[in-house]
Specification:
By secondary structure, the protein is mainly alpha-helical. The protein is 76% helix and 0% strand.
Length: 168
C-alpha cells in the first residue's frame, strides 16, 4: 500500500516534467516575434517600390508567422492546463474564452485546422511564385496539403463517431 501510494505520487508529479517544454515553446513565440519584426522591417522601406504580387507574398509571410504563433500558443495553454496545472488568471478580463475548456479532441481539431491554414498559405505562396518551383515540387506541396486536409476531416469524423458512441 505504501509503495503503491508512493508510485502514484511520483507518477502524478511527473506531469511537471512537461513544464520546461511549455516554457521552451513560449521562448519559440519570442523567436517568432523577432522574425515577424525582421520581416516587417524588411518590407516597410520598399513597400512603394514593390509590385502587388510581392506585397501579397509579404503579407502571406506575416500571416503565416502569426498562424504559427497562434498554434504554439494554443498548444502551450491547452497542453499546460490539460496535463500540468490550471493557469490561475484570477478571472482576468483578457483570458481567452476557450482556455480551460479545450480538451484533447478540441485541441487536435484546432491544431489540424491551423496546420491546414499554414499549409494553404505555403501552397498559395508557391503558386504566386510558380516560376520558382518545378512541377514535381508543386505536386508534392499540393499532395501534402491534401493529406493535411484529409487528415483533418478524418480526425473530425473520428471525434464525431466517438461522441456518438459515447451517447449510446
Amino acid at each position: 500500500m505504501i509503495v503503491e501510494r508512493f508510485l502514484e505520487q511520483v507518477i502524478f508529479k511527473s506531469r511537471w516534467l512537461l513544464a520546461p517544454v511549455y516554457v521552451g515553446l513560449t521562448a519559440v513565440l519570442l523567436i517568432l516575434v523577432v522574425k515577424f519584426a525582421q520581416e516587417l522591417f524588411h518590407i516597410v522601406p520598399s513597400i512603394l517600390d514593390m509590385p502587388e504580387e510581392q506585397i501579397v507574398l509579404a503579407a502571406l509571410t506575416l500571416v503565416d508567422i502569426a498562424l504559427v504563433g497562434n498554434l504554439i500558443l494554443m498548444v502551450v495553454f491547452a497542453g499546460y492546463e490539460n496535463f500540468v496545472s490550471k493557469i490561475d488568471t484570477k478571472d482576468h478580463v483578457d483570458r481567452p474564452d476557450w482556455m480551460g475548456k479545450v480538451d484533447m479532441s478540441g485541441l487536435k481539431i484546432r491544431l489540424i485546422a491551423s496546420i491546414v491554414a499554414i499549409s494553404s498559405i505555403q501552397v498559395l505562396k508557391a503558386f504566386l511564385n510558380v516560376h520558382d518551383y518545378s512541377d514535381r515540387h508543386l505536386a508534392w506541396m499540393v499532395g501534402i496539403h491534401v493529406m493535411f486536409v484529409v487528415s483533418g476531416v478524418l480526425l473530425a469524423l473520428m471525434d464525431w463517431l466517438a461522441e456518438k458512441a459515447s451517447e449510446h
